[in-house]
Design a protein that fits this description.
The structure holds two protein chains of two kinds. By secondary structure, chain A is an alpha/beta fold. Chain A contains 14 helices and 17 strands. Chain A is about 35% helix and about 15% strand. In chain A, strand 7, helix 7 and strand 8 form a beta-alpha-beta unit. The longest helix of chain B is centred in the C-terminal third of the chain and has 29 residues. In chain B, a hairpin with a 2-residue loop joins strand 2 and strand 3. The interface between A and B is medium-sized, with 18 and 20 residues.
Chain lengths: ~425, ~150
């Protein structure tokens, strides 16, 4: 095992995550390499959830009693923490959703609704939406549906053989017709981190919005929305040490103000008459009904936890691990990477195929060894189609992953080859 | 439960040396089935003669379980009466959905009994059933087509 050039002491970090102590069937230790699917949760987040329900539980923004005030303060405090974490100029620009998918659907649906006063925020038959072939299904299907409703044309960036975005046709693809470019920041299957600035620059030239799917980037590296210069981002709590059921839409104030409401209900209104309603200002305009309160509080604690470790350190740890994993897995005959082979502009998500063995079979044998990976098309089927494969095996790392776990994966893949050889 | 119980020698044999693989002409009904969770695909064609399945041909891509299962399907239904084949389908489906508590009948299921262990792996049951679902659908399409031609 290599000594990792990492600023994080993963062994120390692991002590914060109770589940990593788990023994699986056959008393095998857990080797959890599926953090791009969902991350594990540190003790602090689990405690925050329990503390909220045990001491502060009440509905938010409508109770005048003490618990209601405490719950509201905790919920809104989580918003403040998230805003600071992503460099948002205003906490009101942070909208809590159920997950990243809901955040993406919110934008696609409100643009397609035709209810915005400003035509820049209404999709129509003379417009284009531009996505990429690298997207998770949650940033493809909402736009397909929106385009079906409005007659808008859907276009996309292709992929190079190395697993990068093909941007040579940027000027032809993003034009005066383009209303929005919606693209992934870090691919959940290839690991590729996309260079956003040339696309933002082109979008600015033609007056298009840019939305970034940050579900795989915000958990793993410092992300600053002001620096990125985009209009909207989406991410989810459960991939960044937080609970499930809480996601985030961030948008520039002017953009969120211009978008019409998505879901209607309590809390998102200003006044309701039987003949019509007016709406609350952002962020509440987009938070109909009782929100995921405890989950937001848990996400706030996750943000504290990550900030204490330092996102720069988290990113450096994963870079060192990824470098090591690409090198070790690359030494195995029959292993082929799907995605960048070099640890440059890529994250700690490593997809590969094993010659002659279906990923399902790879995953099954690895599971018997206590190694949890994801197998399949990872909700990014167009990527598999692009590279002519039915599926991949994907190992994904996080701040608690050790080089010993990478070694276990390498040994496991060799065992798979012996078993089916 | 270990991989050895899941991957019985019989299953690995069928995977490495599949029986009756490849799509053949002519055929009366065809069905293409996909397992959306893993991207496995299977196409099954049937050629009927009277009340018999004269031939069952197939092609697909996927894991060892899904591919071996199609080979066993071919072995068990090609040349048999349609009602018998459906009975075999029912028995295999029951075995797969039986959470490992159904005792398989070797007289009915032949090599199919090797899949008993798969029933304990919920994520893999769909893999084993993919070709069987395609077979049922292909026969239904063939019969519907035959009905239309008579009408």
């Amino acid at each position: 095992m290599n000594e990792l050039a990492s600023p994080l002491d993963a062994e120390q970090v692991r002590k914060d995550f109770p589940i990593l102590e788990r023994r699986l069937a056959g008393d095998r230790p857990l080797v959890y390499l599926d953090s791009a699917n969902t991350s594990q949760k540190p003790r602090a987040v689990l405690d925050a959830l329990a503390d909220h329900y045990e001491r502060h539980n009440a509905n938010v923004a409508r109770a005048v009693h003490q618990l209601g005030e405490e719950a509201t303060a905790a919920y809104e405090n989580a918003r403040t923490k998230v805003a600071a974490f992503i460099g948002a100029p205003s906490r009101d620009e942070v909208v809590f959703t159920k997950n990243a998918s809901e955040a993406l659907n919110l934008v696609a649906n409100t643009l397609a609704s035709g209810l915005a006063a400003d035509p820049r925020f209404r999709l129509g038959p003379d417009d284009d939406v531009v996505i990429t072939e690298m997207e998770h299904h949650s940033n493809i299907v909402p736009w397909q549906l929106a385009c079906q409703r409005t007659g808008t044309r859907l276009r996309w960036f292709g992929l190079t053989d190395e697993g990068r975005l093909e941007v040579s046709n940027l000027v032809d693809l993003v034009t005066e017709r383009t209303k929005i470019v919606a693209m992934v920041h870090q691919s959940n299957i290839l690991g590729t981190v996309n260079s956003v600035s040339p696309i933002v620059a082109r979008a600015r030239e033609v007056g298009a919005l840019v939305m970034l799917d940050c579900a795989q980037s915000v958990p793993h590296k410092p992300v600053d929305v002001t620096e990125l210069g985009v209009d909207l981002i989406a991410f989810t709590g459960h991939k960044m040490c937080g609970p499930t059921g809480i996601g985030v839409l961030w948008g520039r104030t002017e953009v969120l103000d211009a978008l019409p409401p998505f879901l209607g209900g309590g809390e998102m209104i200003e006044t309701v008459d039987m003949t019509g309603s007016t709406f609350a200002p952002i962020p509440h305009k987009f938070e109909a009904g009782t929100p995921p309160i405890a989950q937001a509080v848990g996400l706030g604690t996750a943000v504290d936890y990550l900030s204490d470790l330092g996102m720069v350190n988290v990113a450096a740890h994963e870079r060192a691990l990824t470098t090591y994993a690409l090198e070790r897995l690359g030494e195995i005959d029959g292993v082929r990477f799907v995605g960048p082979r070099l640890p440059i502009s890529r994250g700690g998500t490593v997809s590969f195929t094993v010659d002659g063995i279906h990923p399902h079979d790879v995953g099954q044998v690895l599971d018997e060894l206590g190694i949890a990976v994801r197998v399949g098309h990872h909700c990014a089927r167009p990527v598999c189609v692009r590279y002519g494969i039915p599926a991949t095996t994907r190992a994904s790392f996080y701040l608690y992953t050790t080089p010993a776990e990478v070694d276990a994966l390498v040994d496991g893949v060799k065992q798979v080859q012996r078993f089916f050889g | 439960m270990t991989t050895d119980t899941l991957y019985q020698e019989i299953i690995l044999d069928h995977y490495k040396h599949p029986a009756g693989r490849g799509l053949r002409e002519p055929f009366d009904g065809e069905s293409h089935q996909v397992n959306p969770t893993c991207g496995d695909e299977m196409t099954v064609r049937v050629r009927l003669a009277g009340d018999r399945v004269k031939d069952l041909s197939y092609d697909g891509k996927g894991c060892s379980i899904s591919q071996a299962s199609a080979s066993v399907l071919h072995q068990l239904v090609a040349g048999h009466r349609v009602d018998e084949a459906f009975g075999t389908c029912d028995a295999f489906t029951e075995l797969m959905q039986g959470r490992g508590e159904v005792e398989p009948d070797e007289d009915v299921l032949g090599d199919g009994i090797a899949f008993a262990g798969v029933a304990r792996y919920p994520a893999r049951i769909k893999c084993a059933l993919l070709s069987w679902m395609a077979f049922r659908d292909a026969v239904a399409r063939a019969l519907a087509m035959a009905g239309k031609e008579r009408a």
